[in-house]
Amino acid sequence: MTPDLRTAVGDLRLANPVLTASGTFGYGLDLEDLCPPERLGGIVTKGLSPLSRRGNQPPRIAETAAGMLNAIGLQNIGVEAFCSDVLPELRRRSVTVVVNVFGESPAAYREVIARCERAAGVAAYELNVSCPNVSAGGIEFGHRPAALASLTAACRAETGKPLWVKLSPNAPDLVGTAQAAVDGGADALSLINTLRALAIDAVARRPVLQRGYGGLSGPAIKPVALRMLWEVHRALPSVPLVGIGGIETGQDVAEFLLAGASAVQVGTAVFRDPAAPLRILGELERFCAAQGVAAVGELIGGLQWL
Amino acid sequence: MTPDLRTAVGDLRLANPVLTASGTFGYGLDLEDLCPPERLGGIVTKGLSPLSRRGNQPPRIAETAAGMLNAIGLQNIGVEAFCSDVLPELRRRSVTVVVNVFGESPAAYREVIARCERAAGVAAYELNVSCPNVSAGGIEFGHRPAALASLTAACRAETGKPLWVKLSPNAPDLVGTAQAAVDGGADALSLINTLRALAIDAVARRPVLQRGYGGLSGPAIKPVALRMLWEVHRALPSVPLVGIGGIETGQDVAEFLLAGASAVQVGTAVFRDPAAPLRILGELERFCAAQGVAAVGELIGGLQWL
Amino acid sequence: MIARRDLAARVASVEDLTRTCFRLELTCREPVVAVPGQFGMLRCGAELDPLLRRAFSFAGVRQVGEGWVVEMHIKEVGKGTTLLRRLAPGARTSLLAPLGNGFTLAGLSGGRLALVAGGIGLPPVLFAAEVLAAEGRPFDLFFGAARASELYEIDRLAAATAAVGGELGLCTDDGSRGEAGVVTGALERRLAGGREIGRVLACGPDPMLRALGRLATARGLDAELSLEEPMACGVGVCLGCVVELEDGSLVPSCKEGPVFPVRRLGERWRS
Amino acid sequence: MIARRDLAARVASVEDLTRTCFRLELTCREPVVAVPGQFGMLRCGAELDPLLRRAFSFAGVRQVGEGWVVEMHIKEVGKGTTLLRRLAPGARTSLLAPLGNGFTLAGLSGGRLALVAGGIGLPPVLFAAEVLAAEGRPFDLFFGAARASELYEIDRLAAATAAVGGELGLCTDDGSRGEAGVVTGALERRLAGGREIGRVLACGPDPMLRALGRLATARGLDAELSLEEPMACGVGVCLGCVVELEDGSLVPSCKEGPVFPVRRLGERWRS
Ligand SMILES: Cc1cc2nc3c(=O)[nH]c(=O)nc-3n(C[C@H](O)[C@H](O)[C@H](O)COP(=O)(O)OP(=O)(O)OC[C@H]3O[C@@H](n4cnc5c(N)ncnc54)[C@H](O)[C@@H]3O)c2cc1C
Ligand SMILES: Cc1cc2nc3c(=O)[nH]c(=O)nc-3n(C[C@H](O)[C@H](O)[C@H](O)COP(=O)(O)OP(=O)(O)OC[C@H]3O[C@@H](n4cnc5c(N)ncnc54)[C@H](O)[C@@H]3O)c2cc1C
Ligand SMILES: Cc1cc2nc3c(=O)[nH]c(=O)nc-3n(C[C@H](O)[C@H](O)[C@H](O)COP(=O)(O)O)c2cc1C
Ligand SMILES: Cc1cc2nc3c(=O)[nH]c(=O)nc-3n(C[C@H](O)[C@H](O)[C@H](O)COP(=O)(O)O)c2cc1C
Ligand code: FES
Ligand code: FES
Fold it and tell me: How high does pLDDT run on average in chain D?
């Protein structure tokens, strides 16, 4: 029996639940020789802003125990280059494309979405709200429920396509921000983004990263991601969720599905193994077959709590 | 040149900056054959409550990538047994003893401290505020600045000895709770306790731990601990800090000192290597010697920021 | 009590016993003294994943030349045991041992001593058998597994039982060797056949141990079970490995066990 | 471009070159084709710590029987390289390769080609030397290290330079072998002595490369530097390994490098 791998995040149907996470798979074609994007549930682009961005000075990455820090600074080619140079080929290959959007003001987010709306081939948007909101004095959008609700509503006004909001694990009130995003019109929530962290070079007596703090990702954060996912799922059981954080194996995917995710994103694992998303998909299929799971949908939210 | 390892947490002088973390070294004598407590900066006891506690049903622990979850449920022998059966021997050996205190009400915390005040041999108290406050409906003391300030003040009233408050990394407002503890009369802050997390058994479709959630500790959390330590140190530069979280090597200790800690606690590392605190102390000494650091005090808060 | 130590060890050999189990022999320079039922916490790699050591019972300890050789039988079930299986001879590791208590081998007041092992529960039982054989104390031994290919070390077991005129009873779930059915069934049949059993010492999978616990409780048999709880420290400080006792208390099995008399154990093991 | 692949590899041998450096030879069944300056991302262990692969330049690739042998020279500096040094022959790993660009060996318009290596910067330079020697293209080679015991593979370097009538210039900081002082000094002395140098290809520690960058900029020399930035993916998607170019842009060195012409590089490398 071949397990049915199809899933849906709200209205968005996906061939399988394994997507790539923003910032770890380029714009979808960069690793097509090693991991064909059309075989995945979808790809989430590197975060796109209205104009291209240079990002932070190096060093930008540091390895930690079973994890890594990054402070890339949202370097990207800009939405225009993406829509004209990359999107047509993704569309030709029928890749399910989720555009990860960010900006320093609601207007910037709207601009990115508006540009994509004029192109063809975008399946959904994911708002990265872990960036400093210039109008709110640099506090992250994702940290203040009111700001997040109005940002989401502003983006909602630009598109009829599925709108995902990617939650920050550093927000003071996880469920409150989740609720705010839904109130603002989000169709689904993806979580988690990276944990704010610090690596220190004891010899140089300086942070390892040029920017000081960085975001922690990788297997180290998986137990925190699962906890947050389950907390949001219990609080808002009808909201579709996309699970992210330290996924390395098919069994990890099953854990995220059980905790309430309808799909998942694979991030840092790609750096260890560029074909990780495909490998993980195969492992998930075998896991389902071995456990007598006829369709991955059976797993979603299926965790038996206490 | 032998580096001078002496340090002080506020008024409390320590022979060296390496202590053991609560819950990972028993009551100080359990591992004396493998790691003599008198050679350490000090030991922090397993959390003590007025009466002995049975703790949670097993399974209580789960390994994760470079970390582990625990939900011991604060099993302990009770303050009376500690004071009569363990403390005298610790005192005989001149071990610097920090009593980790918890309870479900301010009265319970006070009771533990009051009992210890009647005994001799306690150097300081550390309040574990990651336990549900029954009077506040089960929300952790460490999550609400006002509750934390009044808990700290209540404990302050019981003792003239150094009072440390151990911060929870799950609190919505880290610096706010730190400030509240200081306002309540804390002499120092120790951080971090474990990160709330979840491990799932995908085959059984249940949490691995009987209690559902557990606390994540070990090297996986080190970058988060360093970040929080530095944030608190920057916000409250005059408050003495004790760094905790994933320390495995002498170089890790140097990192925590640079980020503002006056001393550190070694926890999960003991499970991998029961002599870890001593080994780490030796590594720290060699690190200082190699780097030309004449006294560990030179490192404290010495991180060069951006 | 024999002093526990964190022993520097080197891999002497890794050798397959069954499709999934292998023998790991470690050489230590310091003397290793342990009694059957005791275990060690073994480091599985130099890096931080896997983070914790793994608990393994001793299958035997012998002095060889200047050193001591510790024998373990390990089933490959996850990442730690997979790493151990791949160790090359000469590789260095650390073994915190001996830990826990052991089986009560002496002081039998009447009836025969029965050793019972299920699957990878054999190591402490084999160790006990060889100690008993060397000391000339009689015992019977029952060893069960899913199928014939998972019964191993039969020659050593046969030699040990034969040395003291004891019975070696083999069982397989599928009947491919020895008696068909679970190993506790074999024991029950001996009891039904009138054999006087003074004490049972057992190690194996939980369902087998619980069945023995029920049997011992029902018949008032003196029985000791070696339990396997997930462990972090192995030395009683993490309180992760607790077992519920008859009085409702939760005690660390790494210190108060891993071997428990059935009568001390809580309901879970007796009904 | 040669297609990159995630190659299944087995350790053929691990052999010390100096006190801290070792040669690692890997055997792959699939063909490995690479040019000098290219590198691979090597997995250092099966578990999640260390998490990331490590970047190593090719020191050479040769076909042996049915397989291809990849030669790397590695300096033990941290946990990944320590694990690699301990690998036993036969151990499995994965090598994502070939990655990045390579040195420009052809198309010299005038003057001599100078290869410059400092310390563990030798692998791509040795690879280039042996390719040039095999093709009969002349070059000089300068190799510097802290002390005589850290100069290695001198016979192969001597053979390669001799094959095309080139100079092999050795330097040590402490003067214990060859010219005393840094390797860039040797190059400067040749220039001062009137040697026409048409292009410099270099790999080594940052201070050496920056000195060369300054020298090349000051003299208008055509020079290519192989840079070492911390890398997570090696394939251009993490944007972790960026290098600042002359126009202020930050480009991933795993894709646009690791070899950069000095004239493309930002201030840091030229002043
Ligand atoms: C006192 C004692 C004696 C033991 N003796 C033996 C023996 O002689 N031979 C043998 O093959 N096995 C024995 N075990 C079980 C052995 O410890 C586990 O099989 C082993 O820890 C699995 O590790 P892993 O990394 O391969 O599995 P994983 O499933 O990857 O381990 C994940 C985590 O769960 C823990 N864990 C998993 N299974 C068990 C288990 N059954 N018991 C305790 N912890 C577990 C691991 O220690 C680790 O922390 C014994 C266990 C105990 C407590
Ligand atoms: C293109 C390229 C080619 C290289 N070729 C060689 C070679 O031929 N021989 C050789 O010995 N070394 C080479 N290096 C450097 C080598 O990658 C590092 O020495 C190695 O990653 C150190 O790993 P570690 O775990 O031992 O050290 P750790 O310090 O424990 O590593 C911690 C982290 O920092 C990174 N890191 C540490 N040092 C470096 C470094 N110098 N460059 C990049 N990342 C680093 C590691 O990859 C890891 O993520 C090369 C680097 C690059 C980028
Ligand atoms: C190098 C790097 C770059 C990232 N860039 C982005 C980004 O542009 N937008 C975004 O929303 N998340 C970004 N992320 C976060 C990931 O999408 C993901 O949420 C996080 O890494 C946790 O998943 P993982 O543990 O599987 O990597 C980035 C992560 C990494 C490691
Ligand atoms: C098994 C276990 C039990 C613990 N018990 C306590 C406790 O009783 N009181 C307390 O304040 N912290 C307790 N902690 C938290 C540790 O003291 C420490 O803050 C945390 O583990 C992070 O440090 P580490 O990564 O070095 O372990 C416990 C941790 C573990 C792993
Ligand atoms: S394993 Fe830590 S108390 Fe038993
Ligand atoms: S290492 Fe990831 S972009 Fe270069």
Answer: 96
CATH number at residue D44: 2.40.30.10
- Residue A139 pLDDT exceeds 80: no
Q: What domains are defined for chain A?
A: 7-55+74-198+218-298 (3.20.20.70)
The answer to whether the CB of A266 falls within 8 A of the CB of A247 is: yes
Cβ neighbours of C188 (radius 10 Å): 16
pLDDT tens figures, A239-277: 999 999 999 999 999 999 999 999 999 999 999 999 999
| C134 and C264 co-located in one domain | yes
pLDDT score of B136 more than 90:
no
Residue D106 lies in a domain: no
Q: Is C199 on the interface with B (CB under 8 A)?
A: no
Does C123 lie in the same domain as C75?
no
Query: Is D126 in the same domain as D159?
Result: yes
D79 touches chain C (CB under 8 A): yes
Q: How many domains does chain D have?
A: 2
The verdict on whether B131 is a catalytic residue reads yes
Q: Are residues C15 and C145 in the same domain?
A: no
Query: Are D263 and D226 in the same domain?
Result: yes
Any idea what the CATH number is for the domain that residue C167 is in? 3.40.50.80
Q: Is C252 in the pocket of ligand 5 (CB under 6 A)?
A: yes
Q: Do B66 and A259 touch (CB under 8 A)?
A: no
In a domain, D104, yes or no: no
Residue B8 CA to residue B295 CA, distance in Å, equals 12
Mean pLDDT of chain A: 96
Is residue C44 within 8 Å of C83, Cβ to Cβ?
yes
Distance D229 CA to ligand 6 centre (A): 9
Closest-lying ligand 4 atom to the alpha carbon of residue B74? 8
DSSP string, C29-56: SS-----BTBEEEE---SSSSS-S-EEE
- Using DSSP's 3-state secondary structure scheme, residue A86 falls into helix
Whether the CB of D70 sits within 6 Å of ligand 2: no
Mutate to test the pocket of ligand 2, among D16, D56, D72, D96 (most ligand atoms within 8 A of CB): D56
Binary contact (B272, C250; C-beta < 8 A): no
Asked if D239 and D165 sit in the same domain, the reply is yes
Residue contact D240–A30, C-beta within 8 A: no
DSSP B264-276: EEE-THHHH-TTH
Burial class (CB in 10 A: 0-12, 13-18, 19+), B255: buried
Task: Give the confidence band of B224 by pLDDT, cuts at 50, 70, 90.
Answer: very high
Q: pLDDT tens digits for A157-168?
A: 999 999 999 999
pLDDT at B141: 87
Same domain? D89 vs D118: no
Binary contact (B223, A303; C-beta < 8 A): no
Confidence of residue A209 (pLDDT cuts 50, 70, 90): very high
Ligand with the closest atom to the CA of B18: 4
Same domain, C129 and C244: yes
**Ligand 3 pocket residue status of A99, Cβ below 6 Å:** no
What's the CA gap between B19 and B97, in Å, rounded?
Answer: 9
pLDDT in tens, B232-281: 999 999 999 999 999 999 999 999 999 999 999 999 999 999 999 999 99
**Domain end residue (candidates: D78, D99, D120):** D99
**What pairing do the DSSP bridges indicate for beta strands D92-99 and D5-16?**
antiparallel
pLDDT value, residue C1: 58
pLDDT at B133: 72
Please check whether residue C121 lies inside any domain of the structure: yes
Q: What is the pLDDT of residues B175-209, one digit of tens each?
A: 999 999 999 999 999 999 999 999 999 999 999 99
Q: In this structure, is residue C104 part of a structural domain? A: no
C187 phi, psi to nearest 5 deg: -65, -45
User: D106's torsion region: left (phi>0), alpha (psi -120 to 50) or beta?
Assistant: beta
Say if residue C52's pLDDT is above 70: yes
Question: Which structural domain range is residue C30 located in?
Answer: 5-99
Does B140 score more than 90 pLDDT?
A: no
C-beta of A49 in contact with ligand 3 (< 6 A): no
Domain boundary among D36, D67, D99: D99
